[in-house]
Amino acid sequence: MRTKILLPETKLSPYLERVGGTPGEPVVLEKFPFTLGRNESCDYQVPSTRVSREHAAINKDGRHFRIKDLGSTNGTLLNGKKVAEALLSDGDLLTFADAEFCFRTPCNESARVTVTHVMDGGSVAAHDNDLQSEDRAARDFILAVRSLNEGLLHRGLRTRFQPVVELATGQAIGYEALRRIENHSGEVPAGERVLQSVDCRLTERWHQLHRLLAAEQAAEATGANLLFLNLQPAEVGADGLPETLAQLQSRLSGKKLIAEIPHSAVVDIPFFRDFLSRLRELNVGVCYAGFSSGQNQVRAHEQFAPDYLQLAPALARGVDRSTQRQQQIKALVEAAVAAGCKIIATGVHSENEAQTCRELGCQLAQGDHYGRPQTMQWASLA
After folding, report:
1. Domain boundaries defined on the chain
2. Residue 191 and residue 381: Cα distance in Å, rounded?
3. Phi then psi for 315, rounded to 5 degrees?
4. Given a cut of 70, is residue 222 above it in pLDDT?
5. CATH architecture assigned to 15-104
6. What is the per-residue pLDDT across 4-58, written as a single tens digit (0 to 9) for each?
């Protein structure tokens, strides 16, 4: 019997992988500080006018690595949050204006896999406890990629609509289009759930198909006049996206398209403001989705306030029994009114929750109490 240690293929130095756009060679970090920016003098030149001349630097701190913003105009984001300086971990997403990179570090000794060759039977036993589960995960991921590609080819995506209602009247004023990929048993395969969370060309095409199919169905429907479409954090600020949304709106037979921007992607930088201004110019509505912060955060958004502020479902859940949440929502409503935007309470599951939200000043609501997401046409949903 002979034991052999298998070392995974890896780079000896940390490196950056470009996310989105045209894939290229990894950017190997061989010296520190490693600078990134538009200048030719930088260690890595980023070809974008939105990136500052000297945008950011990666430093080595003992066995660790740190990202530092160099006073850039549009800021440096670490996993969607603006930072001045922060510690980096393997897999972190770095955003410099419209350029995104994934930070990677060499694997350590613990990543080795020990394989024992049994000489008499010729069989191979793997002593890494996670090897079989990793094999299954890899197989599921490959099947998910194949399934999504087939779905794109046959437009096999099911779009569901959930009503957004006026609390005062209970009438639907619009619908949110929700994307759902299911197998024959009605479940979303685990591999596809993982793939949908990855930012790549395949998932980008799925997002585009989802919005196109939603707009096509909305154009043929009667009733409510607003169509809420989700944007992914990685899409926010993408070149040409406002124009694409405007083209979809032109197909809506007079209905208004509302772009739902995840609140985690809302940042006070020129790059984001330019994106928002372009949406306004093209008459595309804006909603900040999944908001769970306080009134001070709403006030901080006053200079680039949305048309709608969609609260996180947790705020409305059991609000009729929670004095603390009632106070929080009331403060948010007051700040939103001052900023000129309407509040959408989501996750409303009962009449008591709906009545409490209405009494607190929320204008709009969404949740199972008013209708679950359905594939039916708007006319039959209303």
Report:
1. 15-104, 147-375
2. 32
3. -70, -35
4. yes
5. Sandwich (2.60)
6. 444 444 446 899 988 765 556 789 998 999 999 999 999 999 988 889 999 999 9
Determine the pLDDT at residue 221: 79
Q: What is the dihedral of CA 320, 321, 327, 332, to 10 degrees?
A: -50
Q: What is the pLDDT of residues 111-122, one digit of tens each?
A: 444 444 444 444
Phi/psi of residue 281, each to 5°?
-60, -35
pLDDT > 70? residue 351? yes
Rounded CA-CA distance 289/292 in Å is: 9
Percentage of the chain lying above the pLDDT 90 cut = 48
Q: What are phi and psi of 56, to 5 degrees?
A: -155, 165
Chain centroid, CA 283 distance in Å: 23
pLDDT for position 181 = 53
Note the CATH number of domain 147-375: 3.20.20.450
Query: Full-prediction pTM beyond 0.70?
Result: no
Q: SS3 sequence, the chain?
A: CEEEEECCCCCCCCEEEEECCCCCCCEECCCCCEEEECCCCCCEECCCCCCCCCCEEEEEECCEEEEEECCCCCCEEECCEEECEEEECCCCEEEECCEEEEEECCCCHHHCEEEEECCCCCCEEECCCCHHHHHHHHHHHHHHHHHHHHHHHHCCCEEEEEEEEECCCCCEEEEEEEEECCCCCCCCCHHHHHHHCCCCHHHHHHHHHHHHHHHHHHHHCCCCCEEEEECCHHHCCCCCHHHHHHHHHCCCCCCEEEEEEEHHHCCCCHHHHHHHHHHHHCCCEEEEEEECCCHHHHHHCHHHCCCEEEECHHHHCCHHHCHHHHHHHHHHHHHHHHHCCEEEECCCCCHHHHHHHHHCCCCEECCCCCCCCECCCHHHHC
Distance CA 12, CA 107 (A): 9
